[in-house]
Amino acid sequence: MLIDLLLEPLRYGFLLRGLVAAMLIGIICAVIGTYVVLKGFAFIGDALAHIAFTGIVVAFLAGVVFYLGALVAAIAAGLGIGLIQRRVGLSSDTAIGILFSGVFALGIVLMSLGIKTYTVDLFSYVFGDILSVRPSDLLVIVGLGGLILLLIGLLYKEFLFVSFDPLVAEATGLPGGKLQLLLLTLLSVTVVVSVQAVGVVLVVAMLVTPSAAAYLLTDRFHRMMLLGAAFGALSALIGFYLSYYLNVPSGATIVLVASALFALVALLSPRRADLRLLVRG
């Protein structure tokens, strides 16, 4: 009976693609999410997700694939936030607020004026729908996700050093500014590949919650990253089956499972990790 319950959804190609995409996104979000938690980038992740939505709207208007519009908008916003913060001297929250509110408002106006017939399709990106993942979408997730994981693996120590203490990192000769902009770019790409599965509203939860749960269980950064990836994949797996059998939205269900795992870990965790010890990982 249990095996039948597990295999039932996998008999359909679109459901199997959705499950694979959700688990990959859970892993990718958690890996980049370790830096989000370390640097307090949650607000940036949320802003990038909403700005990516404006890029999706523009892509629909231009008649091009939504990934192109979302990528251009999110990456431009990520770089813009970094440049405004560094060159104008504004705080990160102020820089985010300037871009976030204006660009997202533009997306809403464009949607209301120019895309009357695509409202339902666009709202699927707001709340997420892993069942709409096509073979081409899965290839994009695998390709971009693999690139993100590869770059993080190659620049693991550099990203960690810059994230924990950017001033000291630059003093030792590391290009701190460029590395931070690259990290923001990777975060932007992660947001874009995640929007279809969990939606604009919920993507920040997948960036933060699994990694935050892992943060409560370890005092080593690399273990936090691995545990976060495991929590992200597990949340996607359980959330997928619950959404199928309960007939509820997939993105919201995955996030609820991730939140439940965090609550369980918070209750059972014997200690909290110290961020000063994480860099020793």
Write the CATH fold name.
ABC transporter involved in vitamin B12 uptake, BtuC
Instruction: State Rg.
Output: 19 Å
CATH architectural designation = Orthogonal Bundle
The secondary-structure class comes to mainly alpha
Low-confidence stretches: none
Query: What's the CATH C level?
Result: Mainly Alpha
Distance between the termini: 43 Å
What is the CATH superfamily classification? ABC transporter involved in vitamin B12 uptake, BtuC
Helix residue percentage = over 70%
Number of strands: 0
The best one-word shape is globular
Q: What can be said about the biggest beta sheet?
A: none
How much strand content do the residues show? under 5%
Q: What are its keywords?
A:
single chain, 281 residues, mainly alpha, ABC transporter involved in vitamin B12 uptake, BtuC
What would your notes on this structure say?
With 281 residues, the chain is an all-alpha fold. It has one domain (12-278): ABC transporter involved in vitamin B12 uptake, BtuC (Orthogonal Bundle), CATH 1.10.3470.10. The chain contains 14 helices and no strands. The chain has helices at 2-7, 13-39, 42-62, 66-88, 92-114, 119-127, 135-154, 156-164, 166-171, 176-198, 203-215, 221-246, 250-268, 275-278. Helix 3 (42-62) packs across helix 4. The protein is globular. The termini are far apart.
